[in-house]
């Protein structure tokens, strides 16, 4: 992580700097609440924007996500949910604004550095090293984190023990010697979650973790997310399944046309007329 003092072209800005020094106005409501709540905030966006041509996918978005528990992000198709996840994780560059991760404001979020800031993610389309085994997919994360170097590195007993525990947790221990490309879609989802767990970070972003899963696999993914939550971590997830959103979420964020429509406790937010109109089409 670079300096964090807001000087000399650094990409990091300490959040205790006056907002004027980082080119932002103090009208942002969540900034004023940054230190409220027992556990503080895991993530915050301040005036974040992203456009694709003339389309504003995320439009000067300011929101706050508390530490611990699960926060869901919902909204109609095209509301900016996945784009927001890509901006938070550095998969897409910011056009403007800041992403604040654990009290460090980032003008540029670099995806390979997010684990250093205590954050990792999964994708709608599962991303694995298909040409190596399930076991090696976990060991890559636990050791060198570069596939070929990790395969050559002499693994330590602690790495092997942790890899076994993760594969047992996600239900893939018996598949440990199978090539990742041979797994079913649901098993690939489980392995991707296992790889995220191996990073042992504070905040997990899950983009549509339940999409396309059969009921049994869906329940397993829910159980894994509850396990991560119960260990004191923060989960942010995108889902169109409102039953699951109601079941898992401690807090909900509703987006519409790249802007914040509503946020707060789940049932009161989902009952608001503007949310019903925008998201449910009533």
DSSP strand tally: 11
Unreliable segments (pLDDT under 50, ≥5 consecutive)?
1-9, 13-36
Helix content: 25-40%
Radius of gyration: 19 Å
Q: Could you state the order of secondary-structure elements as H and E?
A: EHEEEHEEEHHHHEHEHEEHH
Based on the model shown, name its key terms.
282 residues; alpha/beta; six-stranded mixed beta sheet; five-stranded antiparallel beta sheet; 10 helices; 33% helix; disordered N terminus
Structure in words:
The chain is an alpha/beta fold. The protein has a domain at 120-199. It is built from ten helices and eleven strands. The protein has helices at residues 29-32, 81-89, 134-142, 147-152, 157-169, 185-199, 215-230, 242-248, 266-270, 273-280, and strands at residues 12-14, 41-52, 55-66, 69-74, 96-101, 104-106, 119-122, 203-207, 234-238, 251-256, 259-264. The protein has a six-stranded mixed β-sheet, with helices on both faces. Strands 1-6-5-2-3 form a five-stranded antiparallel β-sheet. Strand 5 (96-101) and strand 6 form a beta hairpin. Helix 3 packs parallel to helix 6. The longest helix is centred in the last third of the chain and has 16 residues, at 215-230. The model is unreliable at 1-9 and 13-36 (pLDDT under 50).
